[in-house]
Description:
Elements: H1 2-9, E1 34-35, H2 38-52, H3 56-69, E2 72-73, H4 83-88, H5 91-101, H6 122-137, H7 142-155, H8 157-170, H9 174-187, H10 191-199, H11 202-212, H12 217-231, H13 235-244, H14 246-257, H15 261-270
Parallel strand pairs: 1-2
Helix pairs in contact: 2-3, 5-6, 5-8, 6-9, 7-10, 8-9, 8-10, 9-12, 11-12, 11-13, 11-14, 12-15, 14-15
Amino acid sequence: FVCAVILKNNPTLMAVLDAETLAPATTPPPARLSKISQEDFDAMVQESIDTFDMEPEEAVESALEECAMQKRDVSAICKKADGVNAREALPIVVAFRKLDAQLPKGVPLPGTTEQTTHELDAAKIAEAIDDVRSAITACSDDDERANMLCIAADVGLTGCALYACRCAAATADSALLVNALHALKDCLGAQMPRDVFVHCKGSIELCAYLTTYADDVQVATATCVVVEAAASKHEASKDAHVKAGIPTALVGIFEKHADDDAAFLAFVGAV
Length: 271
């Protein structure tokens, strides 16, 4: 809060927000565990059932213990017997499939000279986005939500949510774009979705929204919220933000909307 007050009362301080001062720490990230696929995990569970006559729940626990000993990453695993089918039945995955079906391929990034030639059904996209957000907010347990978000990222939700923002922008419905950006923020609540965000060059997309919609306080505010969510406890995202030019774009947002409380707080969070 003190930092926010200082920044708001001293606009000249914003001149130092450049790539050098906002560069992420150089401390290397901790070593990652090797990932196991849902199919391989299910095979481990089934082997325990067939070989040792274990009950499904017991076999799942045994497989988790074995993965822990082998230092395998199970963050994106549906921890149930027949996990592939159980995963597809999860509300978040059902919502992802619905959203993905509404998004035509090849929609250009905002701010480019290329124009979309696709027909976009804003109402159906909005409904699918709401389903994604509802599936996420319905989970109140932090660990279960993180597991759900990792599962969803593994099947493609993070990239889909990022692309949904582009499609929403193409409808020229700023309220839809704001909701899509908030859905993207909701999807970034765990480590793996942030990894996927970096892989999808999400920082470049966010910078395009910050520059193209700099005069729209609602879109700018929502984009700042996503910038913060993507960078939370994630050095690779911070580095990608800097390389994409987000610090410079954030200064522009500050200069235009410093008097708007919501926009200012979102800006501070992004910084």
